[in-house]
Specification:
- The chain is an alpha+beta fold.
- The chain has 11 helices and 8 strands.
- The longest helix is centred in the N-terminal third of the chain and has 28 residues.
- The chain is globular.
Length: 299
């Protein structure tokens, strides 16, 4: 298994990151202490791939059975998972962080009766698992109750020629709460937009994280790291943050940029403000106006 670029234990892979991330390398959920040093990382990757091969074979049998019964052309197939998984990114394994490998969940939809069965459509919208129930209800021609959180993405599957993109969420709130069984990962509260990701931590005294996931998909350059990283010029760090462009959608959340430019203390209120106007959340709240009930979702 080829290791991710952020897996090696090198200074450049941890510069500007919270200290707990590097320390976790040697824990139950780290590549240098994998499951109490009881599992070899390469063998772990092979075993996982073999498990996924079993899933792939099972999906093939389901599709074959639907074909035999003449039901495939009228069946909506949704292939997804309950979470992503880290395979060495930042020296970690598992799902209990807000890094991209952890929160990005596979989502493949097959609907032969839509768009002439051509397929191949890729959508940029952010879907959370709260959206599945309303999507299935709409696909079945049923009314979606007002009490259901999330929203149907059924309309995104076949937008039609020349159709405008329907309005969609531009952010979601992430929450992971510390677990006694896995104490190496602190409570994580964060906001993910289509471009930026902000993470703050409870239970540890450590730096927060802010990434431009479009320019830095591997999350190697923490835009907040320069404020408390010894040897880095704070003036240069502020200039770097000030140069972060704002598009039309992000202009609605000026607190994100203003908070970052003022430093760490100001960052503490960013998460709530950046979510105003977002929608459903992964293990968080549905950030509608006012305070909504807690929900369990997935990015």
């Amino acid at each position: 298994y080829p290791p991710p670029v952020t897996m090696p234990n090198r200074h450049e892979n941890y510069e500007g990151k919270p200290n707990w991330v590097e320390a976790q390398r040697r824990s139950w959920h780290g590549v240098d202490g994998l499951y109490d040093n009881s599992v070899d990382f390469q063998q772990f990757a092979v075993d996982y791939a073999e498990t996924m091969r079993g899933v792939d074979d099972s999906v093939g049998r389901i599709v074959g059975s639907l074909e035999e019964r003449g039901l495939l052309e009228e069946t909506l197939l949704v292939f997804t998972s309950d979470n992503g998984f880290q395979f060495g990114e930042h020296g970690l394994i598992d799902k209990r962080t807000m890094y991209e490998a952890s929160i990005r969940v596979p989502l493949v939809v097959m609907a032969p009766w839509l768009d002439g069965g051509a397929g191949g459509l890729r959508r940029p919208e952010m879907i959370v698992n709260l959206d599945f129930a309303p999507t299935f209800l709409e696909a079945a021609g049923m009314e979606v109750p007002d009490t259901v959180q999330g929203r149907s993405f059924f309309g995104l599957l076949e937008p039609g020629p020349g159709a405008e993109r329907p309005p969609w969420r531009d952010a979601f709130l992430y929450e992971y709460f510390w677990e006694r069984a896995f104490p190496q990962t602190p409570t994580v509260l964060g906001v993910r937009t289509d471009r930026y990701k902000f993470m703050r931590f409870h239970g540890v005294w450590d730096r927060y994280e802010l990434y431009d996931v479009q320019a830095d998909p591997d999350e190697r350059n923490n835009l907040l790291g320069g404020f408390i990283t010894p040897g880095r010029d704070r003036g240069a760090a502020r200039a770097e943050l000030a140069a972060v462009p704002l598009d039309a959608a992000e202009a609605q959340k000026p607190a994100l940029r203003a908070g970052c430019r003022r430093g760490r203390r100001r960052i503490q209120c960013v998460a709530a403000r950046a979510c105003a106007g977002g929608s459903a959340a992964r293990r968080g709240r549905a950030p509608s106006p006012g305070s909504g009930p807690r929900v369990r979702g997935s990015a």
